[in-house]
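pinned: reference chain
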Amino acid sequence: MEKFLKRHTTLPRVMFMNFTAFLLTLGIVIIFAKIFSSIIEKIKLPGVLGEIFFGMILGNIVLYGYLLGPHISSWLKDWLAIRGPSAFEGVEPMHYIAKLGIIMLLFIAGLDTNVERLKSTGKVATISTIMGVFIPLIMGWLAGLSLGYEMRESLAMGVLLTATSIGVTVRTLMEINMLTSEVGAASLSASVMDDFLGIALIIFVTGTGSLLMLGINLSIFFIVILITWHYIPLILKYTHRVVRTEKGLLGIIIGIMLLFSALAQYSFSAAIEGAYFAGIILSNVPEKRIFSNDIKVIGYGLLIPVFFVYTGAQLDLGVFSNLHAVILGIVIIVIAIVGKVIGRGIGARIGGFDWHKSIQMGIGSIPRMEVALVSLTLAITSGAISKEHAQLFIGATMLFVTITTLITPPLLKWAFRKEIEEMKKKIPSS
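pinned: its structure tokens
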């Protein structure tokens, strides 16, 4: 009886503590994300950096035990469920809320996309994508061979450098009001294509999937997009007339976003692309004026800050203590930056942009995060990266995603400084 009572009185307590930790963590994340964002904006940098910095503080709090004292550090880790680079692992819902944040961000980006401008930049986006993927791939592959790695490991190293982290670039372009510009539209389109190519390349290098099935899934996905494109205005018109409950249309729009995200996640493990295309489909419907602002309130008030704090929490500062990882990381960082800026920049120039816009395109492709980490995981589990070198590659990859994520927002603001100044001059006269 004593064991029975102990077991059945402890379980609810554990569940209560987990839910308490979730609420506490979420509350702290949202409040301090906005505070840090405001502080960073006051020093003329994009606010997204503040959210990432706060995430780094949370995710690496295990390193600060000697400053806080062992008891305070232990209490914080227990209550906030923080475990170094795997921050929030004790509170799994934080992971899903963060994923919803990037899905919402790409959905908003799709809603704000000028479809005609997107079509007009198709040539630039396509050429810059191809150049921006294969130049870093080749440079990384050659660097791996020159460092003494085997052919397959060197190819895996090259693949890690191919895909751009679309979230950081999109959020920064939104903050400086350049997402709807010609360069913004082309950059967004190119980054989406980057993800598709990155997924195909990692499947090819690791042999963990079928390129044929990927092609079939992509075809089905875009057939659904085309069908929905034609019928969604009629569906929404009828729905808005019939569904009269408060915020009923908003709920249906969010549901459509999630359905497209689920389809994309199931088809090629990229939910954010589904959200982006859902946003594009809904960008020109008359009902957009009704739900657009509500979507942004939910996104920027709750979900999107969580994603960037979560992103910062994944950036493990402990990798700086591993000299070999730092050396490999520096090599990868140089290739990651130079390869993307040159590759996508030259591709944009060939596609018709001038050098100024081409450099902006290149800088927008610098950050790496999600696909790079997925590619790393697949490369290690498939044996493309040997167990002997796995920890070294993990450390180097964490270093290069950390640096590229942090330097991109200020670099993008610098690259668009002329356009930002021109926009400021127009505001008083409007």
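why pinned: The radius of gyration is 22 Å. DSSP finds 19 helices and no strands in the chain.
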